Amino acid sequence: MNTSDRNIGDVLIVGGGISGIQAALDLANSGFRVFLVDKSPALGGKMSQLDKTFPTNDCSMCIESPKFIECARNPNIEIITYTEVDRVEGEAGDFKVTLTKKPRYISEEKCTGCNICVDYCPVKIPDPFNQNLSENKAVHIYFSQAVPLVTYVDPETCLYLKEGKCQICVGACKTNAIDLHQKPETMVLEVGAIILSPGYETFNPKLRGDFGYGRMQNVVTSLDYERILCATGPYEGEILRPSDKKHPHKIAWIQCVGSRQVNEGGNNYCSAVCCAYTQKQVILSKDHDADLQATIFHNDIRAYGKDFERFHQRAERLSDVRFIRSYVTVGREIESTKNVTIKYSTLDDGVKEEEFDMVVLSVGLNPPKDVEALAQKIGIELTDQRFCKNNPYNPIETSRKGVFVSGAFQGPLDIPESVVTASGAGALCGQLLSYRRGRLERERVYPAERDVSQEELKIGVVVCYCGANIGRVVDIPAVIEYASTLPNVSWAGENLFACSTENAKQISDAIVEKGLNRVVLAACTPRTHEPLFRDTCREAGLNQYFFEFANIREHCSWVHSREKESATQKAKEIVRMSVARAAHLEPLQEFQLPVDHTGLVVGGGVAGMTAALNMAEQGFEVYLIEKDDDLGGMARRLHYTLEGLDVQSYLKDLVTKVYRHPAVHVWTDATITEVSGYVGNFVTRVTSQGRVREVKHGVAVIATGAQEYKPTEYLYGQSDRVLTQLELEGEIVAQSDKVRNAQSVVMIQCVGCRQADRNYCSRVCCSQAIKNAHKLKEINPEMEIQIIFRDMRTYGLKETYYREASEKNVKFIRYEADTKPVVEAAGEGFKVTVPDPVLGQMMELEADLVVLAAAVIPAESSQEAGKFFKVSNNPDGFFQEAHVKLRPVDFAADGVFLCGTAHYPKHLTETISQAYGAAGRAVGILSRETVTASGAVCDVTEHDCVSCGACITACKYGAISFADTPQGKKARVEPILCKGDGLCNAKCPTGAIYLKHYTDDEIFAQIDAAIPASKENH
């Protein structure tokens, strides 16, 4: 490809955090060429600095770093780091973007990431990646798993660049990669669309001297603390105080630092993630030290997300953990110990001052640095809070056509929402550029697969340090030495991080250079990394099923962190077992199946219609089926949003577009009666308006919505003056007498949720109450409105409306779960009794109307749809996504996606974003000609099959059925449906069914190696 062609692409993505990465992968996998640009030296964004992610506490880098390499290996993604946008010219479909690449003073083509220059550099500097809590050098790699794995020189600290004095690194570099005379480079790219994913900055409490940060050594921010917790951090995962490197035994967390503030320098919005990440840090800290005393000073607990309520309860139930609802001030630093005192107030004890070993400030999210300059260069508008101004009805569209936004640049967002909006931005780019899909696409080419059937066994063993995750506990050199003595092992080596680009390449090089025909990697979990290393084998021309993973992190170093000798011994045994199994591995072949380029969307609410319309606009035929006799779903009962949008006008326009689009086929009054097939080739039978119809489709999007809980408490159903919030909204729009004549309204929150049988927050209710309170104040400014709540969860930018309601004299009264309000009839109105936590007395409130924030509960139709498509629900009855962080709109069942309130309660704009996200993911399959089926699937030895059907009963995916053969009915496996879980193997009485890649020979060899016949001396 010549230089001019290299600068032509389809989409430019600005920002290489998780949102930008996901957008790049989605677009590249659906036929577009992408430029992924980031101003940092490497991909990763803030997620790469986190230790774990809530609410699953997955290792953050473990789930993100495979995506780095996936981007690096994708021929349709060009990664351009250490680069900033200079200007954007042109229009949607034909943008000309000028970039300035900052000098690294390193040749990226020559640098091997060997770190020799770092070793020789004499200048020590605070490490920016570790939040300046440890030292690095003036030349260094940004972090160990960086992509690209290339050093860069800090021009502000390099002695040569500052004073012309030192060039030690130049002489030390063996590849002549260092160029201290490098200049900024200008490049011009031609693209059709732009996605802005520049992420966020954390609030800096040092600017205002908040809470002693920058003055008191043991006051750290939450991002500082993430690095302290992390095994690759400044203290290798040990929780130590910066002042004396000792273990703290008493830590305080202070919430809302920089958020929910109206004073100068603070932010008037809620940062949305701080409550949950604080609870995560408390849980992880208690895992490190069970005797740790943890105190969380908070205002509202905003556990509004999926599984967040249980996560909060998990933290709250831990021993020696206190949640104290109080504003605080940091008192003083005690000179002798460097401990810090905090003043706070409780209703029972008044003002107190308490001493802590360490204080963590839960800082909020700010817009990206220099955001005004970025907005001017791109030609977009910003909000008052300096986030990206978007289309009120489509939060992914910016004020400039052809420029889209994803991630936290929209406003404070968690990782799943950042991923959802990334896929959504990809869907909108696909809609804009559908005419050019595939024109610039390049196919990835692997070397020819080597036939090793006649070769003697040559097993290579690679042992990964995983930074300090494994290396701090397990004696890696001892494990390598032991592995080299095992039968059939011809080579054993080590990696600092096997998942980094350079170390993965070292593995593929070793396969070629040493003639290896089996590979055992002793590292982390195959759950996140096995696809990456199978792909590494393919790059070396080795069948990917000759790869075996030995998990010596989760199964060893993490669970035996205080037993180093025993952990090392166990690591040896795990490696021995894996080597024994690897000797029996067989080459397996994946196979391709054709894709039907038609989509099916189940559910005709806003989510389903949005997804269907987008897929149709991208050029694919779509069938939209709805159980009711008209489209619209729950949105038919919504009239306005908290932000003031006209929902019914939007809905009418959306329905019209759907009915008029020639590629969207709408079936109303429809019921699914049967679903068969698999990804790329589903067949669904539908009964609609008395007719039985059948549709063949490649993907399905489930958008069956949710419904409002019908209360049985607080006199609901006994009086027409006890309403739900949705019913009140209808009465307000109808201008009914009961609303216009009401002088006092009491709203009760959390009705039917945050309780034992529905242990979740319905997410939208607090904002719904604030919305209706504002409307009632518009009707009658003198109306007495009291909202009885547990925690006001107006997260993100909705916080402003909460404050405005308070300024309009809407009163807020807090209650606890064990002291719920009591509603009694009193004449034509009601008496509502609720304890006042400040006065310590019972309050009696008069009310003309009582309004209940009724829970959002799963739709009855969701259960049926789930059974047909063989997808699972979470304990609350909402659909369970494949991965809470990185696959939030995918099901575990391939080719089936979800969106809207069927996933979890959400606001209208969130529903729209997720609908685009689901459409984007679905088009990733529809745009291909084939899908790939795994080779690790079950098969049947027919002459051993007795046709008992036990395997069919055991299979949860419907992958096994009877087929007619000359020997009668025999079990047969549909490989594309098989998930390789092996349940059928355990049920089969004759052993006729077996799982490839987990054969009896392989498993028995592993078991035999676990307990050798004679005791070995290690």
Describe the structure.
A five-stranded parallel sheet has the order 5-2-1-13-26. Strands 15-22-16-17-18 form a five-stranded parallel sheet. The protein has a five-stranded parallel sheet with strand order 34-33-32-38-49, sandwiched between helices. It is of the alpha/beta class and 1018 residues long. The mean pLDDT is 95. It is globular, with a radius of gyration of 30 Å.
Layout of helices and strands:
Blueprint: H1 3-6, E1 11-14, H2 18-28, E2 34-37, E3 52-53, E4 58-59, H3 60-73, E5 77-80, E6 83-91, E7 94-101, H4 116-120, E8 124-126, E9 135-137, E10 139-140, E11 152-153, H5 159-163, H6 168-172, E12 185-191, E13 193-196, E14 201-202, E15 219-221, H7 222-229, E16 250-257, H8 274-288, E17 293-298, H9 308-317, E18 321-325, E19 328-333, E20 340-346, E21 350-356, E22 358-363, E23 365-366, H10 371-378, E24 390-391, E25 394-398, E26 403-405, H11 415-432, E27 459-464, H12 468-471, H13 476-483, E28 489-495, H14 501-513, E29 518-523, H15 526-539, E30 547-551, H16 553-557, H17 564-582, E31 591-594, E32 598-602, H18 606-617, E33 621-625, H19 647-660, E34 664-667, E35 670-678, E36 681-688, E37 691-697, E38 699-702, E39 706-708, E40 722-724, H20 725-734, H21 737-740, E41 744-751, H22 765-779, E42 784-789, H23 799-807, E43 811-814, E44 822-826, E45 829-836, E46 841-847, E47 849-854, E48 856-858, H24 860-869, E49 896-898, H25 908-926, E50 930-933, E51 938-940, H26 950-954, E52 960-965, E53 968-973, H27 983-987, ...
Parallel strand pairs: 1-2, 1-13, 2-5, 13-26, 15-22, 16-17, 16-22, 17-18, 27-28, 27-29, 29-30, 32-33, 32-38, 33-34, 38-49, 40-47, 41-42, 41-47, 42-43
Antiparallel strand pairs: 3-4, 6-7, 7-12, 8-9, 10-11, 14-23, 19-20, 20-21, 24-25, 31-50, 35-36, 36-37, 39-48, 44-45, 45-46, 51-54, 52-53
Helix pairs in contact: 2-3, 2-11, 7-8, 8-9, 11-25, 13-17, 14-15, 17-28, 18-19, 18-25, 20-22
